[in-house]
Each structure stands twice: as structure tokens, then as C-alpha cells.
């Protein structure tokens, strides 16, 4: 952590499927050496155990042995209202994460398993949870409360939580450093546009609104997720198409968004299709862009003005046409992009707003792993 250099990176994909794959790339002496293992990984435990083995060698080693690891930072998806910041994991914290399973049934159980396995692989390391929801815990009540019976909030914690907090927080800090302006007094909109996508309105470094809701299904149009729809849509699908709750969940989470509209959830492909005259791809892009623009307007109102905007994640960092269309015609809000800067942004952080644009618009590459590592270090040094 002294120079924040990545020693190794990797992932295990398609856990539980026949076509599982592990990639592990070491970065030693200025050289990146990939290692790939294609085989099924039965569960998260098997995947993480294998990562632990690879970190120690023999050909893939970046540490002497597992006791070299001082701390493990875990991205925990749902911290509910219990966690406002990264936290050292003890029994009380484990219990609270367990308590939030009903809010994130797909994510918190594997997170818990990850913690348990990491404890057995790195018994001497401090385990730290960095919550995807924590950055949004500063939302004021009018922004987080749904207008449904109040008891549902009180007794069942139904409310907006927001996600991608690690990324939004990271790019805010990077933007403030780049602009040489304190977060205090700064009104920012951050746009995390990846396969999952969300926006956040940030004032004085505190998040005051965000597009995702109680779950990561709400808000923007995403790769396969619908984002906001009329809450009565599930009744219609059940009544008229005889869909079960499971069917509706699948449709809205996995078969909607860009994929639902035009057949592909890969933005590169959607843009290519639209350019070659594919009608539905064009429509999908129109819907995608319109939703973003609507939230820019909403957040400019919520923030009572706007000083800067930040694009990040796969699409935000790499798709000039999406950034251009999201900002086009918003001169009345003080937003003007420079076409050339937007088309070929520099490496690292780059400014894409036009000379004289009242709102400064940046592209900031996100790095959630680095942020988790920084937060982990910060917590254990406290
Ligand atoms: P992420 O979830 O942050 O990895 O982002 C994934 C999304 O970024 C996918 O929809 C990709 O198609 C999209 N993406 C990555 N590179 C590009 C690019 N050069 N142009 C447009 N979209 C891209």
C-alpha cells in the first residue's frame, strides 16, 4: 500500500457452471504475467481457496506466504442502515451483515462466505467490510423514503439505499483533487455507467440522492436491468401473462434494459448496431440517453445548481457518443462539452468540457479495488 501498486489481479467467473474460469495476472518487476485456469468451480469457497493458493505460488506467487497479508478488504453489497463507513469485521458485524440478507438475498450470502473463507486462508489478517451502500447513507429522508405505509420502513427497512457507493465516492475524491477544489461547497453529479449503472448527486462531499433504490434494479436503464418502471407493472405481468414472481424478477433483472430493447447488453455492440441502421438499437440508445438526461435535470434541481459532472465505468469512460448525447443541449444548465476533448480523452483523468463551460465535465476512471484497499488501510490504522 505504500505506493498503491497492484501486485496481482484476477477473478473467478461462472461459479457453479461447467464453463468456469479463473484468471490471475501477476504484476512483478514491471511485467504482467497472465495465468488462466478453465474448469468448473463448484462454489465461491473453492474459487477463493484457489486464489489463496495462487497468491503464494509456486509460479504465480506475489507474496511469500499467506501470513504476509495484513488485511483483506471485502466489498459487501448491502450494509442497510447499520453501516455508514468501512468497518473491521467482528462477530457483531457478521451478525449485522446476516441481518441484511433479506435486503440483498443474492449478494450478502456469498459476501459472508467470502469473509469466512478469507478468515481461514489468511487467519492473521484483519478482515474489513467496505459497503456498497455506505456512501449513500447521507441521503436525507425525502430522498430515501418511499411514499408507502411508514411501517414498511420502520419494521422492514424498506427505503432507497443506493449502490456503487465505493465507485461514486472514489471518483468524487479524484475529481475534487483534479479540480483543486475542496469537496466542501462543490455540487457534483457522478455517472457510473457500466453494465450496472447509477448516478449520484453529491453536495459538500455528501451524497444527497442516487438513482438506485432499495435494490440495484431501480433508476437508469442498464445492460439487462430495466431501471425505473411503473410499480404496477408486476401486477400487469402476473394478471395478463400469468407470470410468477420468479418470472417477473428474471424479466426485470436479466431480460430488460438494453438487452430487452434490442437484444444486446454490450454497449459497444448496441452502438455498432445503431450505426448500421438497426432500428431497435437506435431506440434502445434513445431510451438509455433520455433517462440519464432526465436525472441530470433532476439532480441539478436537487443540488440547487451544478459545478461538475463525472463520467465513469465501462461506458462512461469509453463511449464518447453516450457522453456527448447525455450533455448535448444542456447549455441552460451551464454544461458544454468540447467535441475533440470528448472524442479522445487523455489517459487517466481528463476534462471534456469546453473552454468556458460553467460546469466542468470530467472522465475519471473508477478503481473500486483500489478504493477498497485504501479504505481498508484507513480503518485498520484508525
Ligand atoms: P463495466 O460494468 O464497468 O465493466 O462496463 C461494461 C460496459 O461498458 C459494457 O456495456 C461494455 O459494452 C461497455 N464498454 C466497454 N468499452 C466500451 C467502449 N469502448 N465503447 C462503448 N462501450 C464500452
Structure notes:
This protein is of the alpha/beta class and 382 residues long. It has 15 helices and 12 strands. Helices cover 40% and strands 17% of the residues. The two termini are 16 Å apart. The mean pLDDT is 95. It has a 6-stranded mixed β-sheet, with helices on both faces. The protein has helices spanning 44-56, 91-99, 108-121, 141-144, 150-156, 165-179, 233-241, 245-254, 257-262, 267-275, 279-303, 313-318, 320-327, 339-343, 368-381; strands spanning 8-13, 21-28, 31-38, 71-76, 87-88, 126-131, 187-193, 197-203, 206-210, 308-312, 350-351, 360-363. The chain binds adenosine monophosphate. Adenosine monophosphate binds at residues 194-195, 223, 266-268, 271, 313-315, 318-319.
Order of helices and strands: EEEHEEHHEHHHEEEHHHHHEHHHEEH
The description of the largest β-sheet is: 6 strands, mixed
Shape: globular
Q: Which cofactor or ligand species appear?
A: adenosine monophosphate
Write the layout of secondary structure elements.
Blueprint: E1 8-13, E2 21-28, E3 31-38, H1 44-56, E4 71-76, E5 87-88, H2 91-99, H3 108-121, E6 126-131, H4 141-144, H5 150-156, H6 165-179, E7 187-193, E8 197-203, E9 206-210, H7 233-241, H8 245-254, H9 257-262, H10 267-275, H11 279-303, E10 308-312, H12 313-318, H13 320-327, H14 339-343, E11 350-351, E12 360-363, H15 368-381
Bound molecules: adenosine monophosphate.
Adenosine monophosphate binds at residues 194-195, 223, 266-268, 271, 313-315, 318-319.
Keywords:
single chain, 382 residues, alpha/beta, 6-stranded mixed beta sheet, 3-stranded antiparallel beta sheet, 15 helices, 12 strands, 17% strand, binds adenosine monophosphate
Amino acid at each position: 500500500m505504500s505506493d498503491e501498486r497492484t501486485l496481482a489481479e484476477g477473478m473467478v467467473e461462472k461459479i457453479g457452471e461447467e464453463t468456469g474460469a479463473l484468471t490471475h495476472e501477476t504484476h512483478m518487476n514491471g511485467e504482467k504475467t497472465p495465468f488462466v485456469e478453465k474448469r468448473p468451480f463448484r462454489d465461491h469457497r473453492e474459487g477463493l481457496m484457489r486464489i489463496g493458493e495462487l497468491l503464494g505460488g509456486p509460479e504465480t506467487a506475489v507474496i511469500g506466504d499467506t501470513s504476509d497479508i495484513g488485511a483483506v478488504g471485502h466489498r459487501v453489497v448491502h450494509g442497510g442502515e447499520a453501516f455508514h463507513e468501512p468497518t473491521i469485521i467482528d462477530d457483531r458485524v457478521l451478525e449485522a451483515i446476516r441481518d441484511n440478507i433479506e435486503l440483498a438475498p443474492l449478494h450478502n450470502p456469498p459476501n459472508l462466505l467470502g469473509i469466512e473463507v478469507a478468515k481461514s486462508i489468511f487467519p492473521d489478517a484483519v478482515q474489513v467490510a467496505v459497503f456498497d451502500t455506505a456512501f449513500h447513507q447521507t441521503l436525507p429522508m425525502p430522498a430515501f423514503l418511499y411514499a408507502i405505509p411508514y411501517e414498511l420502513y420502520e419494521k422492514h427497512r424498506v427505503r432507497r439505499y443506493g449502490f456503487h457507493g465505493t465507485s461514486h465516492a472514489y471518483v468524487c475524491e479524484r475529481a475534487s483533487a483534479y479540480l483543486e477544489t475542496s469537496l466542501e461547497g462543490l455540487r457534483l453529479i457522478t455517472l457510473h455507467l457500466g453494465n450496472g449503472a447509477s448516478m449520484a448527486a453529491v453536495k459538500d462531499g455528501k451524497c444527497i440522492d442516487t438513482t438506485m433504490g432499495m435494490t440495484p434494479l431501480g433508476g437508469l436503464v442498464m445492460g439487462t436491468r430495466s431501471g425505473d418502471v411503473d410499480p404496477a407493472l408486476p401486477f400487469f405481468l402476473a394478471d395478463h401473462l400469468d407470470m410468477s414472481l420468479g418470472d417477473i424478477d428474471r424479466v426485470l433483472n436479466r431480460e430488460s434494459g438494453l438487452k430487452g430493447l434490442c437484444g444486446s447488453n454490450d454497449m459497444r455492440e448496441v452502438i455498432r448496431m445503431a450505426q448500421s441502421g438497426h432500428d431497435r438499437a437506435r431506440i434502445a440508445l434513445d431510451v438509455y440517453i433520455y433517462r440519464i438526461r432526465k436525472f441530470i435535470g433532476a439532480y441539478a434541481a436537487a443540488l440547487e445548481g451544478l459545478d461538475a459532472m463525472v463520467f465513469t465505468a465501462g461506458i462512461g469512460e469509453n463511449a464518447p457518443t453516450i457522453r456527448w448525447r447525455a450533455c448535448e443541449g444542456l447549455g441552460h444548465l451551464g454544461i458544454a462539452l468540447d467535441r475533440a476533448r470528448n472524442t479522445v480523452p487523455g489517459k487517466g483523468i481528463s476534462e471534456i468540457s469546453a473552454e468556458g463551460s460553467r460546469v466542468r465535465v470530467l472522465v475519471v476512471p473508477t478503481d473500486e479495488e483500489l478504493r477498497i484497499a485504501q479504505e481498508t488501510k484507513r480503518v485498520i490504522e484508525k
